[in-house]
Amino acid sequence: MSPGRRIRPGYPAAMQSVKRRGRAVADRVVEQRVAQRVAAASAGRRGRGLVLLWHRVRPEGPGEDEVVRSVATADLAEQLDVLRELGDVVALAELEHLGRRRRPAFALTFDDDDPGHVRETLPLLRARDLPATFFLSGRWRTAAGPYWWEHLESCARSSGVATVAAALGLAPTTDVRALAGALTGTPGSLRLTSRATGGSDTMTRDQAGALVAAGMEIGFHTFAHPSLPSLPDAALRAALTAGRDELAAELATPLRRFAYPHGHADARVAAATRDAGYLSAWTTAKRVARADDEPMRRGRWDLGHLPIDRFRTTVLRGLARPWD
Ligand SMILES: [Zn+2]
Fold it and tell me: What is the pLDDT of residue 138?
C-alpha cells in the first residue's frame, strides 16, 4: 500500500467510484455512437440521403443584427466531420440518382452570393476533399449590389430598426429579423435594393471563379431573389432566367440546377422552373432524398444553427423519417 493511501484512506475508494462513473459514461457514449452508425448504415441500405443547406459562414458566428444568421466556421467544420462519420458526402448529381448503398449519402449546398463561401467554406471543403453546389445570383455583375436583406441590415445598423420600419410603413418593431419577415415576398423588399447605403460585403467575380476552379458546381438562385410564388407568370418566367446565361458564360460553367429564393415554391413555380430547363430545383422543405423525388420540389435541411450534438441527432432522425 502506498503512503498516500495510508494518509487519506478514503481517497482511493472515492477515486475508484469516480473512475467507474467516468467509464460508464464513456461506455454509453461509445454505445450511442455505435447505435448511430448502425442506424445510419440502415438508412444507406434503404437508399436514403439528405441534402444540407448553409447560407453565411463567418469566423465569429452569428450576430444579433443579422437577418440571415451566420454559422461559425469552426461549427461548419464540426458539422462536415459528423456527416463524413455517418455517411458519404457526394455531389448533388449523384444524390439525385441514389441507389442502395453501404452508408447514407449527403450532399452539401450553399446559397447566395456570400464571400464567406470562398473565405471560410472552400478551405474546409478542400481540406476534406468534399464536393458541394453553390447556388449563386451573380450580383457582382451589375450595380444593384447586395441582396435586399443586406440593404435592410445596412439601413438598420445606420438608422435603427424602428426608424427603418416606420420609413417602410410597417408595424413598429426593433427586431430586424421580424422586419425582414414582414418584407419577404413583398414589393417593398425589392425596392430596398434601390436604397443602397453601402458597407455590405458581397461576393466578387474572382471569388465565384475560385469556386469553379476548385471543381465546385454552380447553380442558379435568381438575380433579384424574389419570393417566386408572389410573381405573375411573365415576371416568374423572367426571374427564372434573367442573368442565368450571362452568369454561366462569365464563369464558363453550365447552371443546370436551381434553388428557390427563400425556399418558396408551389406547383405553378415548379412547372415554370422545369420549363426554364433546369434538371432539378431545391426548396427548404425537410425531406429525405430518394431517387424518385419530384425533380422540381426536392428538399434541403438548413441545420447550421444547431449545436453539434443536436445537429447529429437531427440528421439521424431525418434519415429515419418515413417517406414524405
Ligand atoms: Zn437565398
Answer: 94
